[in-house]
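Lecture notes, structural biology module. Today: joint structure prediction for complexes of two components.
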Amino acid sequence: MARIELKNIVKQYGDGFPAVNDVSLDIADGEFVILVGPSGCGKSTLLRMIVGLEDITGGDLMIDGKRVNDLAPRDRDLAMVFQNYALYPHLTVGENIAFPLRLNHSKVPESEIRARVQKASDMLELNEHLDRKPANLSGGQRQRVAMGRAIVRDAKAFLFDEPLSNLDAKLRGQMRTEIARMQRSLATTTIYVTHDQTEAMTLGDRVAVLRKGLLQQVASPRELYEQPVNLFVAGFIGSPPMNFLPARVSGDRMQLPFCEVPRPAQVDGSYEGKLLIVGVRPEHFDDADVTDAPEGAVTFSAGVDVTEWLGNELYAYVPFEAAEETKEQLAELDRELDGESLRSQLVVTLDAMSGVRDGDTANLWFDPQRMHVFDPTTGVNLTRDEDKAKKIGEQSEMLRRRSLERAQGSESKTPAHA
Amino acid sequence: MGALSTKEKTGWYVGALLIVLYAIVPVVYIVSMSFKSEGALAERTFFPTQATWANYTEIFAGNGSDLFLPALRNSIITCLLATLIAVVLSMFCAYAIARLNFPGKRIVLTSALAVAVFPVITMVTPLFNLWRQIGLYDTIPGLIIPYLALTLPISIWTMSAFFRGIPWDMEQAAQVDGATSWQAFRKVIVPLAAPGVFTTAIIAFFIAWNDFVFGISLTSTSAAQPVPAALSSFTGSSYFVQPTGAISAAAVIVTIPVVLLALVFQRRIVAGLTNGAVKG
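The predicted structure, tokenised, for the full assembly:
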């Protein structure tokens, strides 16, 4: 149980390249924080600095108010689950879990070790595997052993370094839920690194988005989704990703590739005649032939190139010609997000009932209230509503506390079981 | 590789057979000679017409035993000690090379390689003079030290390849779990590196066991003379008779541990050697 504070943390490598640059983050006791970003953004480096496997070049790392920059990993009392699990192949599952306790065996008596290993294995349903070697386990079982080794110690915090990236899709979903459940019932401060935005959104109380070593935004998943601070966060969060369209401001209207929308109040007159980037999420579009467009919605028709029917919904791809000025910027953004889009296209998520098929001309609508407008040079979200963002933040914090209390309450009533 | 055609298969078998024959014929010939009686040695037959244990009784109980038994003892003591020291030293050295970044790391590796390819015979004369002056001549330590020069380089190379193969995460996990560097090394790295240590020990033992040059040059009496050197000072029953039978019998005896080790641990040795070849 601990509060972890990062104050202006910097990691600079020998060649002067800052892998992590001036990151400040205050993680409350019992909070589940996700570090997320595309590959090379410095998220793993940051985690390894917290646990003590990387030196901190600058700034302060505080655990429970104590500066721990110069402490060795073993003195920080943090538990970590590695990406490849790093199980000890020569030890059985039970001994793997007991390993941290055995290291200071003079302090922990044998009976206590056995009881704690038993408790951890009950929780993770590893009882029948305790005498097996890690080599004979499946990926998901190894993952659970690694978690067992982390929880057996009552460490101050859990650190996860992309723990699910070696599992296949189905197992990943199950283990994700398992981690969330475990964290809630133990209420241990947790920092979790991932590049997968689904994991980030589903697990985190708060999510810290990193880009090239710089912290972009720290907020609840809902705030990231609804009020992203900039183009990068908007493009990173959400699947399929947000559509970015070039928009020319003229008077109180903005000219988009397919339609015209009213100019939001936050975009002032100084942008007159300039090209901006408008972001609309795929799921905010709808088929006008299936659902009626509400008041204020903008309806337009566009030629659909390809459709993908998924059962519960339908993705339709609408190609468009992007303006030269924004093309470069968007291509750059896409590369940063580990993507490789070959053409500019609009992705819309439609109702599965929609009859739109390849080659059709679809009638689509969206609510301009829900679109975001970005400045193409700075990437700043001009339409971000600070008040709303604050409200979302407060609400998420309240929900977090409530669910934590609930989990604690049910924990004390029923014996620990996963 | 796909399935081989019959023609290719036959080709491979014939090739393999030739190589095996090339390697095994001298060994079989020595074994057969060790069973021939003194008079039969000149016979032009490959196998003895009348097999006899006379040569073996000669070296274990007869005239040759004064020479052979102490030599056998010397060989075992020298080689085991040299192997032990080489493995322990190279273990620490290789661990440092695989895990730490320190100035001169490359120099250690390249000089180890340089020592390994250095012609042994050039070291003998200076060592002979030096050993005689400082009193190491004809002593067991006087043999162990040059054996270390032979075994350490290859031990360091094989072992550092093994250490490099152990994921670093394993050690970092141990440190995060609360282990000191020494605990992480002892409880995690050493057990994982055990096959590597074993392979290295076997290879080092072979090298020391097979040495002749140092054995013959740096010793003179049964105080320290190892078997290969002792064999060369065997004498026949009279001045005119060559001690071929006794030498063959002794050669067979000293080959037995090597063959046994190789047979029992062949999988490990091959793994160890290729390990070194690919990653070292």
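Point to remember: Chain A touches chain B at residues 51-53, 72-74, 77-80, 82-84, 86, 88-90, 99-100, 103-104, 149, 153 (CB under 8 Å).
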